[in-house]
Specification:
Layout: E1 4-8, H1 12-24, E2 28-32, H2 35-44, E3 49-52, H3 61-69, E4 79-83, H4 90-97, E5 101-104, H5 109-119
Length: about 130
């Protein structure tokens, strides 16, 4: 069974890029367009990894991450912030909210895929 990645991203074009990149790499994707949908999605199915945009409608990625981290069953699920926020202190803010990694947009597809592989514990398979 392929690993499931929850993509939390409000922009359809960005979700399509991730669908193409990660789907072609063999991942199964679940999608959410805002923080509230992300919380509902993890309640329905525990993902192996969450890619969390920060600037989202209804509930931002920081708050969604904090809420996801309150669920003991989800504490070990890696969350990578994928965001256009790239100012000094933004990465520290994402990590303080509970993210395990931080990738800025625009990102290199290779770097993002590498972060996903590393977070899912698959780095040994790409040697």
């Amino acid at each position: 069974m392929s690993q499931c990645i929850l993509v939390v991203e409000d922009q359809e074009d960005n979700r399509q890029i991730l669908r193409d990149l990660l789907g072609n790499a063999g991942y199964e994707l679940t999608e959410a367009e805002n923080g509230e949908e992300a919380i509902a999605a993890v309640d329905r199915r525990r993902p192996d990894l969450i890619l969390m945009d920060i600037q989202l409608p209804l509930m931002d990625g920081y708050e969604a991450t904090r809420r996801i981290r309150t669920n003991p069953d989800l504490k070990s699920v890696p969350i990578i912030a994928v965001t256009s926020y790239a100012l000094s202190g933004d990465e520290a803010k994402a990590l303080a909210a509970g993210c395990d990694g931080y990738v800025t947009k625009p990102y290199s597809p290779r770097d993002l895929l590498g972060a996903c592989l590393f977070s899912c514990g698959l780095m040994a398979t790409i040697a």
